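Tokens for chain A. Residues wanted.
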């Protein structure tokens, strides 16, 4: 005789092991950003968590998110304040950031918007784009990547990279 077991619970009612309570991870992201002096977009990028998932974790849709995917939770916990500080101050050649800034300009993003997105004064943003600023922080480089990602702009090197910037 076989026994047939039926469940009266739906998936939404059951605790799902791939989702965990979000509040400790939200608190940890706030700890990381406050102590490393970086924006949450850097934490998301470094953890491999999408910008939209991180924004939902921090700000929710109607209040804070209650659950976070366990994969995202683990990735966030793997980050240290020291790693983020190195990202904030570590210097790299600004070539890649300059290419992405030029690409953003060609797609109609204003100097002000780009400067705001990468947390740099407009003069420095322009200097990076015009190859007059030889290096930038890793954080600035990552923020140019994020600025492209959130606008669904993929950067693939092309002949367009060597064209002059559009006029202001």
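Reply:
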């Amino acid at each position: 005789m076989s026994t047939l077991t039926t469940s009266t619970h739906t998936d939404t009612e059951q605790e799902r092991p791939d989702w965990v309570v979000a509040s400790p991870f939200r608190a940890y992201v706030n700890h990381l950003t406050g102590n490393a002096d970086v924006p949450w977009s850097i934490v998301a990028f470094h953890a491999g968590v999408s910008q939209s998932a991180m924004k939902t974790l921090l700000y929710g849709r109607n209040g804070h998110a209650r659950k976070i995917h366990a994969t995202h939770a683990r990735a966030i916990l793997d980050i240290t304040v020291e790693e983020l500080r190195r990202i904030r101050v570590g210097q790299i050649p600004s070539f890649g950031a300059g290419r992405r800034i030029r690409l953003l300009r060609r797609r109609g993003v204003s100097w002000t918007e780009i400067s705001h997105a990468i947390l740099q004064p407009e003069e420095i943003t322009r200097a990076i784009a015009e190859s007059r600023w030889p290096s930038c922080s890793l954080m600035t480089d990552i923020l140019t990547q994020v600025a492209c990602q959130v606008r669904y702009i993929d950067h693939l090197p092309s002949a367009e990279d060597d064209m002059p910037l559009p006029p202001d």
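The radius of gyration is 20 Å. Residues 19-87 form a domain with the 434 Repressor (Amino-terminal Domain) fold (CATH 1.10.260).
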